[in-house]
Amino acid sequence: MAVRIVSLVPSITELLCDLDLSEQVVGRTGFCIHPWETVKTIPKVGGTKDLKFDKIRELEPTHVVVNVDENRKEDAEALAEFVPNVVVTHPLAPRDNLDLYRQMGREFDREAQAEALCARFEAAVSRVDDRPDQLVLYLIWRDPWMTVASDTYIAQTLALFNWDAAQPVEVGSPQGDQGLRVRYPEVDLADFLNVDRVLLSSEPFHFKEHHVEEVAALVPGAKVGLIDGEMTSWYGSRAIAGIDYLREYTR
Q1: CATH superfamily, with its number, for domain 5-125
Q2: Arch. (CATH architecture) of 134-249
């Protein structure tokens, strides 16, 4: 049976294309935008958390790729009822990309391409030199202000450059009936007057230049700047470019 993949993870859609699997990708989310010239012709099946199940069923996929953070567990379970293979991913740190490349390589018979990406990733990491420690507040949302917990991929990527993601006290406490930690907590900027930097991400909230002035007034003494969220949060093949981007950004 020919492989037919629906990817529900933007960064992995890009990875699949870089593994020479674009012709096998028959469905994507509206957030899967890279590489645009390739994916623009691939049918959309909704968003990462608002899937069009009828459309997915019509595409008759043999595989659907999901992510623990990006997609809902109940949606993955519903897809498993009619898709033969549900491929679950959950990279939490930069070096998890090596396992991710190899997972996709094994799943879709692209081991050689996966190993080539591993070599490129290792080369990018080898170019990272030592940086001074800095405490940074990474903001992903406004109204309310929201940041990232220390165990997220973003925070672990920053840690590669000795940038420690500042945490609210309550981020480590149990939340909700299941005792789950809040991975993207709401914060009060007044609690972060000790940080060296505040980073305003381009996604999911698209911070712009006028927000820099706003935040600088609320966190005086910190260096405030915009940062490309794709380069910090997208695992997969973009992580290689992300490491080089952050190597220059953190100088």
Answers
A1: Nitrogenase molybdenum iron protein domain (3.40.50.1980)
A2: 3-Layer(aba) Sandwich (3.40)
Per residue of the chain (251 residues), what is the pLDDT tens digit? 799 999 999 999 999 999 999 999 999 999 999 999 999 999 999 999 999 999 999 999 999 999 999 999 999 999 999 999 999 999 999 999 999 999 999 999 999 999 999 999 999 999 999 999 999 999 999 999 999 999 999 999 999 999 999 999 764 444 433 334 688 999 999 999 999 999 999 999 999 999 999 999 999 999 999 999 999 999 999 999 999 999 999 98
Q: Is 245 helix (H, G, I), strand (E, B) or coil?
A: helix
**In the chain, where the domains are located:** 5-125, 134-249
Alpha-carbon distance 237 to 101, whole Å?
A: 8
Coil/strand/helix, residue 138: strand
CB of 153 closer than 8 Å to CB of 95: no
Q: What's this model's pTM, rounded to 2 decimal places?
A: 0.93
Check if 5-125 and 134-249 are the same fold: yes
